[in-house]
Design goal:
heterodimer, A: 372 residues, alpha/beta, abc type-2 transporter like fold, 14 helices, elongated, B: 243 residues, Rossmann fold, 4-stranded antiparallel beta sheet
């Protein structure tokens, strides 16, 4: 026990003496949290709209007005030539081209149906999908408006017309920061755990002090604990700071039990630190450790459901996320904070995390023994 | 009493035999010089004796314990200092002393006493709170040696302790070694400086993984009919190259 105390004191002294490292641990994550939570937003505004109105009737004029009234669209140009619309998309001057055919108003009146054509720039699939959704919404509203007018206010509504009202559960205002902050927090504690722990161990190898440690009575298990425990503590402290910042700046909901968040985080950190330890056993320099950690981190983060929903990934990719610890914590953090999920609800996640912790650390320790 | 006894100690890396059946013994309080050209097998032999590396075959005892079975016990009774990397450069002088004293299990009160004693012996009280990284190399090496013998080991391994240090500091360093030996600490030292070899009680010279010469400096000079260690070293090193 005493040996571990001396090891811990040494580690904390070295960490707190290292100004760049301190910045990396405590200042950078807060800045990242503030920037990312504000910047990452699924809502698309400022969709550039090009209108080709062959009809030039009061009705078509009203439709265009509907688009202009939407916060999502900006009418940038008009023409009477479909080719001009395509050119505008090619020149990146339009995201959406709305083509209103001649006889639009007349058909609508006479045949009770008319066609519109939308050309959408789908380089960014998410944006294209949303643009189409918004456009459909506007056209539907427009449709209802003019029908109500033509039929007269007194007329009974059309049969089968369904009015839909929405209420968004667990994030009533659809605040993206409430959705993003719990996820970003996971990413930040992961950075600390995986990068710094691995690099810290490899550093002793690189400068050679590990040789000195190996001839002292310090046992390998004590050395590992002395190396990982500081980052376990720092990770949890950082989570606490991050939650505080999230509450103060973004007013994120904290419906569930915070103790549960920390319980999960405590086990999650063991997994992450285990990965760091594993990386340190297969590398000789800090640079190598950095590259390997970076590779895993990128894959883990992109496939974590932090930025893109796991449900929209192909099935094989969804299977891969079963082995992604970040995906579990992102989901659990959102479940607890936004939905107030209880211990029983997150039991499967917790079980998976315990299994990961044993597997990764077992592997790391086995590899560590084998190589020394 | 012998502090080290090695019997046909061997280390192979694949087909390469780094240390080939070396046998020797070191007495308590002796200054034992362990010489040889680069790649002769010195470091590998030393790593086996300090428990860093497991021998392929052969037997050895260090401080009375078997190097296969009692590595942990051996580690408590030896000190070790290498040329470059003994101390943490981002810790202060006294923090380094406390750390190494602590991991060797020196009790808190003794540790405080030993720390101040050590600092005053080395004349380092002024820089006790200075980072080791900012000290001159010679001071670092003297400090590293003092830290290596702080827990009163039976035996201390010094791996090229004076590499890159100026002649005056080297002289002072050897005085520290003599003082430690007088107190009964056995010194096992590797060096590339042949004048330092003359300071040793006994010397072994390695070539191609074997011990090519073993004895007091006087004995070796007679055996090889050479005026000094340098000449003996060259004879052995050249012999090993033509062999």
């Amino acid at each position: 026990m005493r040996t571990i105390f001396f090891l811990l004191r040494k580690e904390f002294r070295q960490i707190f003496r290292h100004r760049v490292l301190l910045m990396l641990i405590f200042v950078m994550p807060i800045i990242q949290l503030i920037i990312l939570a504000n910047a990452a937003d699924y809502e698309v505004r400022n969709i550039l709209l090009h209108v080709i109105d062959h009809d030039l009737s009061p009705t078509s004029y009203r439709l265009v007005n509907h688009f202009q009234g939407s916060p999502h669209f900006i009418l940038t140009s008009t023409s009477f030539n479909p080719q001009r619309g395509i050119d505008a998309i090619n020149a990146d001057k339009a995201d959406l081209v709305l083509e209103i055919p001649a006889q639009f108003e007349r058909r609508l009146l006479r045949e009770n149906s008319a066609q519109l054509h939308l050309n959408i720039n789908a380089i960014n699939g998410v944006k294209a999908g949303l643009a189409q959704g918004y456009a459909n919404n506007i056209i539907r509203n427009f449709n209802q408006d003019i029908r109500a007018e033509w039929l007269g206010l007194a007329a009974p509504p059309q049969p089968g017309r369904i009015a839909i009202t929405y209420s968004n559960w667990f994030n009533p205002e659809m605040a993206y920061s409430a959705f993003m902050v719990p996820g970003i927090l996971v990413m930040l504690v992961t950075l600390v755990g995986m990068f710094l722990s691995g690099i810290n161990i490899v550093k002793e190898k690189e400068i050679g002090t590990i040789e000195q440690i190996n001839v002292t009575p310090i046992r390998k298990s004590q050395f590992i604990i002395g190396k990982l425990l500081p980052f376990w503590i720092i990770g949890l402290v950082e989570l606490a700071i991050g939650l505080g910042v999230g509450k103060l700046i973004f007013d994120i909901p904290m419906v569930g039990n915070l103790g549960l968040v920390f319980l999960f985080a405590a086990i999650y950190m063991l997994v992450v630190l285990g990965i760091g330890l594993l990386v340190s056993t297969i590398t000789e320099t800090q640079q190598q450790a950095m590259f390997i950690s970076w590779f895993f981190l990128i894959v883990f983060i992109l496939m974590s459901g932090l930025f893109t929903p796991i449900e929209s990934m192909p099935l094989w990719a969804q299977r891969i996320t079963w082995f992604n610890p970040i995906a579990y914590f992102v989901e659990v953090n959102r479940l607890i904070l936004l939905k107030g999920s209880s211990f029983m609800d997150i039991r499967p996640h917790l079980g998976a995390m315990v299994a990961f912790a044993f597997t990764i650390n077992g592997l790391a320790v086995w590899n560590y023994r084998k190589r020394s | 009493m012998d502090v080290i006894t090695a019997d046909k100690l061997t280390k192979r890396f694949g087909d390469f035999v780094a240390v080939d059946q070396i046998s020797f013994s070191v007495k308590q309080g002796e200054i034992f010089g362990f010489l040889g050209a680069n790649g002769a097998g010195k470091t590998t032999a030393m790593r086996m004796l300090t428990g860093l590396s497991r021998p392929t075959s052969g037997q050895a005892q260090v401080a009375g314990f078997d190097i296969y079975r009692d590595v942990e016990k051996i580690k408590r009774r030896i000190g070790y200092m290498s040329q470059k990397f003994s101390l943490y450069e981002d810790l202060t002088v006294s923090e380094n002393i406390e750390f190494y004293g602590g991991v060797y299990g020196i009790k808190a009160r003794d540790l405080r006493l030993k720390t101040s004693q050590l600092l005053s012996e080395l004349g380092l009280q002024e820089v006790a709170r200075t980072l080791v990284g900012s000290l001159p190399l010679g001071w670092k090496q003297k400090l590293a040696f003092s830290v290596a013998i702080m827990h009163d080991p039976a035996l201390v391994f010094l791996d090229e302790p004076t590499g890159g240090v100026d002649p005056i500091t080297r002289r002072q360093f050897w005085e520290m070694i003599y003082q430690a030996a007088d107190r009964g600490v056995t010194i096992f030292v590797t060096t590339h400086y042949m004048d330092e070899a003359e300071y040793c009680d006994r010397i072994s010279m390695m070539a191609n993984g074997r011990i090519a010469a073993l004895g007091t400096p006087q004995e070796l000079r007679e055996q090889f009919q050479a005026p000094d260690m340098n000449a003996i070293f060259l004879k052995i090193a050249r012999g090993s190259q033509t062999a």
